[in-house]
Amino acid sequence: MAKMFASERQKIIMDKLIDRQRVTIKELSEEIKVSEATLRTDLSKMEESGLLKRTHGGAVLSEHQDSDTSFSMRESKNRDEKSAIAKKAAELLSNGQCIMLDASSTALELARVLRDTSIRLTVVTSGINTALELNNHPDITVILLGGIVKRGSNSLEGNLGISILSKIHIDAMFTSANGFSIDSGLTDFSVYEVELKKAMVNASKKVIALLDHTKMNKNSIASFASIDQLDLIITDDELPDGYAAKLDDQGIEVLIVSGDTN
Q1: What is the mean pLDDT of each run of 10 residues along the chain (262 residues)?
Q2: Could you give the CA distance from residue 77 to residue 71 in angstroms, rounded to a whole number?
Q3: Helices (H), the chain
């Protein structure tokens, strides 16, 4: 059997945790066929990333991670920053474009801005709420990607909607993520949603990341876009010191907005 990379093991561990809420090292060792010592190292690294909480002999899904996966929790966090980022993103759009919006709470904020904007667009999205938000706009055509409705979420996942992407010319994709780092790029906690987001990134001429400061220098379980696939990051003014310069060194353009919308 081929050697499994740490990232592959950690994806499997995360899937099992999401399914069962708790796992033991003994069970994982038998199921993944790796040593308990290796799994202890994996679990420690995953705990450092805030993905899980170690217990005696195993791990449970961390409270922080569990709340992060709830769309209503994500939507309510950093609302002012997300609103400011969405308004800046809308300024980049022009009549006649075809854009892609993922199912993130920040992309939903952009949809809310567009709902009240006089503009002619085609919007392709994997977000159910995002599609509904734009559905009554007289000059926006909405295409909802097919897929499996993720439990407890308003997003679609899986490969069912991917085939349509080859038939549409996407000018720009607007996406958020659970985390972003220079090494891993954009990362998320759902391995299945990531598969769809990878295809969305690959189908887009330009990829624009909408990331408030809490996402920066943070890794989640699975990467869906490397930094060389990103054209622009729009973020708020609480970016860590020197981080914008680091991104500039990587050839990524950064637009910084004020999170204070009052």
Answers
A1: 72 82 91 92 84 88 53 58 95 98 94 97 95 96 88 75 89 95 89 85 97 88 92 92 89 86 49
A2: 10
A3: 6-20, 25-32, 36-48, 63-68, 71-76, 79-91, 105-115, 128-134, 191-202, 243-249
CA–CA dist 16, 18 (Å, integer): 6
List the structure tokens of 41.
């190292």
Query: 78 is written with which tokens?
Result: 């950093």
253/231 Cα distance (integer angstroms): 7
DSSP run (H or E) holding 59: strand 58-61
3-state secondary structure 139-185: CEEEEECCCEECCCCCEEECCCCHHHHHHCCECEEEECCCEEECCCE
Task: Please state the separation of Cα 114 from the chain's center in Å.
Answer: 21
Place of tokens 């919006």: 101
pTM score of the predicted model:
0.73
One-letter identity of residue 101: L
Give the pair of three-digit tokens for residue 110: 């952009």
Looking at residue 228, the DSSP 8-state letter turns out to be: G
For residue 105 the two structure tokens come to: 């709470």
Tell me which DSSP letter residue 40 carries. H
Q: How many CA atoms lie within 13 A of 176 on its CB side?
A: 25
